[in-house]
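ok so for the tutorial part 2 we go from a plain amino acid sequence to predicted structure tokens. step 1 is just haveing the sequence, like this:
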Amino acid sequence: MPEIILETEPKLEKGSRPSSRLRRQGRIPAIVYGHGVDPSSISVDARQLRSALSTKSGMNVLLSLDVDGKKHLVMAKELQHHPVRGTVSHVDFLIVNRNEQVHAEIPLNFVGEPATLNRQGGVVEHQLFALAIMTTPDQMPNSIEVDISALQVGEFIRVADIKLPPGVTTEIDGETIVVLGQPPRVSEEVSQEEQESSQESEQETNS
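step 2 — the prediction. this is what the tokens look like for a chain of 207 residues:
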């Protein structure tokens, strides 16, 4: 996976006022750490960062930063957002190695049309929308596919049933349910209405 180059500038002053001034200038305060390297305070261009994190890889995109003349391969580990505007106000960059495993949250991509479930009037209920995985940066998938075409009422797909890409593992319990086929909701509502109607009829008869 090729990395995206982000231009950086050193953040010379500490505190909230210098950080606010950087944001007004279209830059985001950040910190770079990991792999035994002393943490470095920097800033990155807000538009460049937004563009980099808008790719299919999302937060798991590989980035190349030049910090004090040294190039670092990093991933955006944590983003802080403005409580009102929702814009990124700070980012933590974790230095990674292409040959070492890292933890990441990967979105699940549900594919296929559950024809039998649809004929049964059932409903697809998702329990998980992302999966915590471990892999090397070069083998990081953009998403993990889950085929729900064979799903029927009363059946489910577990984590253990998902075919993970090569080099990808997860510590999530294999019995954890990812998605299941629920009975028709309309039938349940009708049944409840019939039960309530029956109870009302019994009350009228007894009175």
